[in-house]
Write a structure and sequence with these properties.
The complex is a heterodimer of chains A (201) and B (190). Chain A has 201 residues and is of the alpha/beta class. Chain A contains eight helices and ten strands. The relative contact order of chain A is 0.17. Chain B is mainly α. Chain A binds chain B through residues 1, 3-4, 7-8, 10-12, 14-16, 18-20, 22-23, 26, 29-33, 109, 125-127, 130-131, 157-158, 161, and chain B through 41, 44-46, 48-49, 52-53, 61, 64-67, 70-72, 74-76, 78-80, 82-84, 87, 93, 95-97, 99-100, 121, 123-124, 130-132, 136, 138, 174, 189.
Chain lengths: 201, 190
């Protein structure tokens, strides 16, 4: 019995040494991977009679948006929207959606997507992207527009994962994460749809 | 176990069969654990994210993306998979390596079962790093079955040992090949 236990311990120790060497070689270790921040972009809001200004968008969103990197500095000024940083807040997301200046991607699983999603969003989950990086849905993305990815909000990490995968696998640089997530969007009474993604495979 | 012991003391052709069975089980298991280990070793961040998603108390990243237990698991688990897989493939200290593999699989099953009970939906279990395993839907019973199959292969190696085509048969007197006179005692212990 002692011989048997000794062998188990030796195998464990060899593994621990390997793990220790890797840990030492990669120190300091960042366990949580965030996608790279996209370059700062300023978009011009097209002159449409029904388009709202960012100020209007901001007023409606104040109750719902809790976390934002850009809350202190307005993301948009008159006629333009500036995207600075990976994560964007509700007012900026709303302005992008209203003016059709971005492609929206729902990173949740298909069952959640079918129950409700941001109007016009595509459904691309991390698992789907990992299984098939040449999803048909990716072909309908306009590479000239920024991509806004969201999931359920809160602790949900799938939007960051999709942003990272789109950068790594497909070379999309303008990927932003709507950090407040779908629930905040729906609670704010903004446009939503139900049903499956027509471009899903 | 007594019945297993008597089985191993059977006719010589049975020991050949057991040796082949052990060899096939060891190759299959080692291959799968190599793939799983290498994907995790080359991308520890994805494995850390996968562990975090299981929301096991004590194994959740904080706001700064830090947690000591996750950090230890992220590096130790894949190395255990790799080293135990190598020992299994070589058939060296087969039963000890199989034991470690089974302990890992039991821990994975416990984590999977806990998310099923808590109704946490996880799209990717991280079992094979960034690669998808046999289960492509949300983590659930499919993953348990997958681990059950792997566990069965591990049990074969644990019960039979390395068999004749193994380093144990050549080098290790403590690990007699399947079918030898000492097997019954060894299996009783296992």
């Amino acid at each position: 019995m002692s011989s048997y236990l000794l062998k188990v311990i030796v195998i464990f120790v060899i593994s621990a040494v390997g793990a220790g060497v890797q840990l030492w070689s990669e120190w300091p270790v960042q366990l949580k991977a965030d996608p790279a921040p996209p370059p700062v972009t300023t978009l011009t809001i097209p002159d449409r009679p029904d388009s709202q200004t960012d100020a209007e968008a901001g007023e409606k969103a104040d109750d719902a948006a809790e976390v934002s990197d850009e809350q202190d500095a307005p993301a948009a000024s008159a006629g333009t929207i500036t995207l600075d940083g990976l994560e964007i807040d509700l007012p900026t997301t709303k302005a992008l959606h209203e003016n059709q200046l971005a492609t929206f991607i729902d990173a949740r699983v298909s069952s959640e997507f079918e129950e409700g999603h941001i109007e016009g969003a595509l459904n691309i989950s991390p698992a789907a992207l990992e299984a098939n990086s040449s999803l048909f849905a990716l072909d309908v993305i306009d590479p000239a527009l920024p991509i806004v990815i969201y999931c359920g909000g809160g602790d949900c990490d799938d939007s960051h994962r999709v942003a990272e995968l789109l950068q790594d696998l497909r070379g999309f640089e303008q990927t932003h994460v709507f950090i407040d997530g779908y629930q905040t969007w729906a609670d704010a009474g903004l446009p939503t749809s139900t049903g499956p993604d027509p471009f899903a495979e | 176990m007594a019945s297993s012991g008597s089985m191993l003391q059977g006719a010589s052709h049975a020991s050949k069969l057991e040796s082949v069975l052990s060899l096939l089980a060891r190759i299959a298991l080692a291959q799968l654990f190599f793939i799983a280990a290498l994907n995790k070793i080359t991308d520890p961040q994805s494995f850390a994210t996968a562990i975090d998603k299981f929301q096991v108390p004590g194994f959740m990243l904080d706001d700064n993306g830090e947690n000591a237990l996750v950090a230890v698991s992220v590096f130790l688990v894949p190395w255990l998979e790799l080293v135990a897989g190598l020992f299994l493939l070589a058939g060296l200290w087969t039963r000890a390596a199989a034991t470690l593999i089974l302990v890992l699989l039991a821990a994975f099953c416990g984590a999977i079962y806990s998310v099923m009970v808590r109704e946490i939906e996880i799209t990717d279990c991280g079992c094979f790093g960034d690669l998808k395993g046999f289960c492509r839907d949300a983590v659930g019973s499919c993953n348990l079955i997958q681990n059950g199959v792997l566990g069965s292969l591990g049990l074969i190696a644990l019960i039979i040992g390395g068999g004749r085509a193994s380093a144990d048969a050549l080098f290790d007197p403590d690990e007699p090949p399947a079918g030898s006179a000492d097997d019954a005692e060894d299996v009783e212990f296992a």
